[in-house]
Design a protein that fits this description.
Elements: H1 14-17, E1 27-33, H2 37-48, E2 55-61, H3 66-80, E3 91-96, H4 102-109, E4 117-120, E5 126-127, H5 131-141, E6 146-155, E7 160-164, H6 170-173, E8 189-191, H7 192-197, H8 209-217, E9 223-235, H9 251-272, E10 292-294, H10 296-299
Parallel strand pairs: 1-2, 1-4, 2-3, 6-9
Antiparallel strand pairs: 3-10, 4-8, 5-9, 6-7, 6-8
Helix pairs in contact: 2-3, 8-9
Amino acid sequence: MNTFTPSPVVPSMPSVSSMPIGTGSLVTVLMAHYNCAHWAARAIDSILSQTLTNLTLVVIDDASASPERASLCSILRQRRQPRRQPRDERLMAYVTSRNTGQFRIYNHLLPRIASPYVAFQDADDWSDPARLEVLLEALTRDRLDIVGSHLAREDEHGQRLTPVRPPLDVNRALRWRCQGGVIFGATTLGRTEFLRRLGGYDGATRFGADTDLIYRAVFLGRVANVPRALYHATVRPGSLTMSPESGFASAARRAYRKKIRRRFYRNLVRRVFGQLTVADLVAEPNDLDFDLDFDLDFEIDAPIGDQIDASSS
């Protein structure tokens, strides 16, 4: 396979671009947040309480409304410096200068991740305590490049919904035919360098780029799911996958699916004729210019009385 230099991403501010993220950690977990602080405490706690403790959790506020961002900062302060407990240095926070969507943010950070593995967490969902440990064991044992899991689901009131069980062997499922539902991006853990070779996510969209990533990844590496519901998704109105503008049934989502399916079949034909190269699999770079910097509101120590209690978030 041809060697490949990852596509450049939008230049970031010096404080971010000059500093590695997750140095000394085995896994870096990226969590973008936008106007859902009500759910964020549960998501953050589910990562900080993982049985695999050698991790860095990076929370990025994507230019939320001021009240939502203030609530998130209070939650972060409380987790960073719990009462009568040592400071948790595994937690980092950034803020974007404009709302860009999670995939552009992840592209922005990917070149700076120093840990060998990277995982993802949606701010309104939560993870099983053993999620990262089980995924990493499967990835190393089976020599995978990306691994996901089955998906438990509940509505905004906590009512359980039908779980989702994607196929275990994603390469086999996509061997000759493009189909949806083969893996869910938020459940995944991957090799950092492998994601860099693919250029990260499609930087020209706010939705569906996790599916596009897998449609490219199967041509370059091994992708699978573990048969256990390690990730818990919240199905709620107004979320990216449920809103009329960007939900699974929206016209915009259908158009994007059509676009990435065409690319998949072009790459399939190239593979059949021995013409597929790594360059064919590289994502489009970010199409929006934005700054990403430390969240100074989070870094400033706040009095205990100003913090949000976990039970109220």
